[in-house]
Specification:
Radius of gyration: 25 Å
Strand content: 25-35%
Structural class: mainly beta
Distance between the termini: 44 Å
Helix content: 10-25%
Length: 738
């Protein structure tokens, strides 16, 4: 299904005569001041909430909300300067709460902070939980000694890696091998900078948040349990596989105990005050595919990698079992002894985000997505019924239930398909997905792992041999169920679950509606999205800019097996049916029920020069045009009132960052944001270096013009002094007028 902006307004109940998208001749609401003809700029003051009344920031491309004529747009956007700072509307400021390297408990604040959750224990006080997703290998290595204050044997290990195409199977090295010890030192420090962190905060009399350093402040790192005994716990059928004797594959000897957590991206907060963290791109550190009994492939399958840009395969040297990563991890921030529980009923895949629907008298529904090209949307439904949504015992609801995958139909309907041993094998056809690639469990079950399928006829022998998911996996019924959950993405492909467009966040509205961001419709090495569902506003396939979707469960029942879906918002240029942003990611609702969103444009595409839109007689694709949008941004999308259906930019991030984890405090006075991977591409900005690039820009009615843009090379944020090392950090945004 496709939906342009005019369709969107109709869907939201706004007359297209009320808001003129292309003409710009009518004020959007009484809170806007519309420019008179001939003015170069327009000032709009938007009342988003009682605390966030703001003038939208100026991004690098014209937006319809500015109400500028074509000539005004060309003049106003002829030049643009990108800033290496968090750009906020007039009247707002930010405070740095914590940054990479700061002390947290007996460890430190990690790298590339992502999801944030602030659980208040009393007014103006509480626990901030932070995910630390990954390290940006090049920049982390370049700045490590200056920030952390000690050295690592980077050069020595790099020399060995260079002799082996950048890879070292450290797992196979003898315990007394000095190279193994050096790799362990690097891998341990990098894994310490992943995982989760909990810090206690309090707002002072000046309205600023400050750390209180309580005894509950702590880190859950990528090596928790390795030497300190702080193993993570597990629930659900995965335990049957972890504790199984005589595994087909690798056994770490720890049973159901787990060493640490890594690749912690998005997450969610339960109504009862616990926080769940999503382990996403675990394939960078450990093997993702498994054997037919759900056991891990050997750690040698994912060797230690060290090259100019990456330091990965860090589980290799420690012999981490791959099947223990890629889960949802639950932590109670207020319990200083809680180092996390992985709930295997929620499935193992490249988790991104989680949303809870907990209502008295109904089953608990937990929604999540697999953030890969061709990943799926999942729902877990509990066996137990919720009595009190705020009861902390509700965590036990995730101990038993059922995991389902979503099947989307092009007509706006859909269904949930359970993933059990009885589920029929009915694989996704390559011809139905953009890019024509589907990954399935390897048909040679003695070897295990996965296989790539690019032709529909290859599916026929697979279906003839395997009638149900249970035929693909070995063991008792409970062990097969555990193996299916461990191999969830590939089992879901085998069951015909719809391939989607990188689902990156899930949030529940007040009425029970599920909102999902699909970040990118471009196919890749993992697969691609369904051709009938994920199209641009003009029917385009391979649409990079992304969507926000709504899912309404039939009868508004969280346990329903059918649903309806609609596209709420489409990324892209306004002239071509988009709403002015690219690659939507994390979502957040304010207390009014309006939506906030941050974007996730890949670092390599930020401000990438695009001089011409036609090359060699062919129109340039959307993936190549992402650079026109500049740096990643924060947006406000009202879902009610006269301005619903519009999008307003609230903030712009520093150089080469992703603005993640938006969280509004209960009083709506503070917006916490995680500023991730500053300087990821160019590293430390040297002597305030910049360069000028040229861009082909469209006015809101589609007229093309040239823009020269000044782009800093690297970052010095958050210190902002000459040659300061870039450091991921969490900030608190507030109005200076309050």
């Amino acid at each position: 299904m496709k939906m342009n902006r005019r369709d969107l307004l109709k869907f939201l109940g706004v007359s297209t005569g009320t808001v003129l998208l292309s003409q710009g001749t009518k004020a959007l609401s009484s809170s806007f001041m519309v420019a008179a003809e001939g003015k170069e700029t327009v000032k709009t003051i938007f009342n988003a909430s009682q605390s966030f009344t703001f003038t939208p920031v100026k991004i690098p491309i014209p937006l319809t909300i500015e109400k500028l004529s074509e000539q005004q747009q060309k003049l106003s956007y002829k030049t643009y300067e990108v800033m290496d700072d968090v750009v906020l509307p007039e009247g707002f400021t930010y405070d740095v709460i914590a940054q990479w390297g700061d002390k947290v408990g007996d460890s430190r604040f990690g790298y590339n902070n992502d999801y944030l959750s602030f659980v208040e224990t009393k007014p103006n006080e509480g626990f901030l939980t932070i995910n630390f997703e990954y390290i940006s290998g090049k920049t982390w290595r370049e700045t490590y000694e200056k920030v952390i204050g000690k050295s690592l044997p980077f050069d020595e290990v790099q020399a060995i890696a260079d002799e082996n195409n950048g890879q070292i199977n450290a797992f196979a090295l003898a315990k007394n091998d000095p190279i193994k010890a050096q790799i362990e030192a690097i891998a341990a420090e990098a894994l310490i900078d992943q995982g989760m962190g909990i810090i206690s905060l309090r707002k002072n009399a000046q309205g600023q948040w400050e750390r209180t350093h309580s005894d509950a402040d702590r880190r859950i790192t990528g090596i928790s349990g390795l030497k300190d005994g702080r193993y993570l716990k597990t629930t659900g059928p995965g335990i049957r596989v972890f504790e199984k004797q005589d595994k087909q594959g690798y056994d770490d000897g720890l049973g159901s105990k787990i060493i640490g957590t890594n690749q912690n991206c998005a997450g969610g907060t339960t109504p009862w005050g616990t926080v769940l963290s999503a382990e996403e791109n675990i394939q960078n550190q450990v093997p993702e595919p498994v054997r037919a009994d759900g056991s891990s492939l050997d750690p040698s399958e994912t060797p230690f990698v060290m090259n100019e840009r990456n330091i990965d395969g860090r589980g290799n040297v420690f012999g981490l079992a791959g099947n223990k990563y890629g889960w949802m991890l639950e932590v109670d921030p207020s319990d200083k002894n809680d180092y996390g529980t992985k709930h295997t009923w929620l499935g193992r895949y490249r988790h991104e985000a989680v949303a809870f629907r907990a209502e008295s008298g109904k089953k608990l529904a937990v929604y999540s997505g697999c953030d890969r090209r061709g990943g799926h949307v999942y729902k877990f439904v509990s066996e137990k019924t919720i009595v009190d949504p705020k009861d902390k015992n509700n965590s036990c609801c995730m101990d038993s239930g059922m995991l389902y995958g979503a099947v989307f139909n092009p007509d706006g309907t859909g269904k949930w398909v359970r993933l059990t041993p009885e589920t029929p094998v009915n694989p996704v056809l390559p011809s139905k997905v953009q890019g024509g690639l589907v990954t399935l469990p390897n048909s040679d079950r003695r070897v295990g792992g996965i296989m790539e399928v690019t032709e529909d006829q290859e599916i026929i022998p697979f279906k003839n041999r395997f009638k149900t998911l249970g035929d693909l996996y070995t063991g008792t019924y409970e062990e097969k169920q555990g193996a299916i959950l461990i191999d969830a993405h590939f089992a879901a492909n085998a069951a015909g679950i719809t391939c989607t467009a990188r689902p990156e966040d899930t949030e529940i509205g007040k009425d029970g509606t599920l909102f999902i961001t699909f970040t990118s419709g471009t196919p890749g090495g993992d697969g691609g999205p369904d051709q009938g569902v994920f199209r641009g506003p003009n029917g385009e396939i391979n649409y990079e800019y992304g969507w926000i979707m709504k899912i309404m469960e039939d009868r508004n029942d969280p346990a329903a097996m059918t649903f309806r879906w609609d596209i709420l918002a489409t990324g892209g240029e306004p002239a071509l049916g988009g709403m002015g942003f690219s690659n939507p990611d994390n979502l957040m609702f304010d207390q009014k029920g309006d939506l906030w969103m941050v974007t996730d444009m890949s670092t390599s595409r930020h401000n990438r020069e695009i001089k011409q839109r036609v090359q060699d007689g062919e129109a340039v694709g959307t993936s190549s045009l992402v650079g026109i949008f500049g740096n990643n941004t924060v947006w406000y999308l009202p879902l009610q009132g006269e301005n619903k259906g519009m999008a307003f930019p609230f903030a712009i991030g520093p150089m080469e960052v992703e603005m993640t984890g938006p969280w509004l405090t209960e009083d709506q006075q503070t917006l916490f944001l995680a500023v991730q991977h500053p300087g990821e591409a160019y590293g430390t900005r040297q002597n305030m270096a910049s360069e000028v690039r040229e861009f082909s820009i469209l006015t809101t009615s589609g007229e093309e013009f040239k823009q020269t843009r000044t782009v800093p090379l690297g970052s010095n944020w958050p210190g902002k002094q000459v040659n300061d090392p870039p450091r991921p950090a969490v900030i608190a945004v507030r109005s200076v007028n309050k």
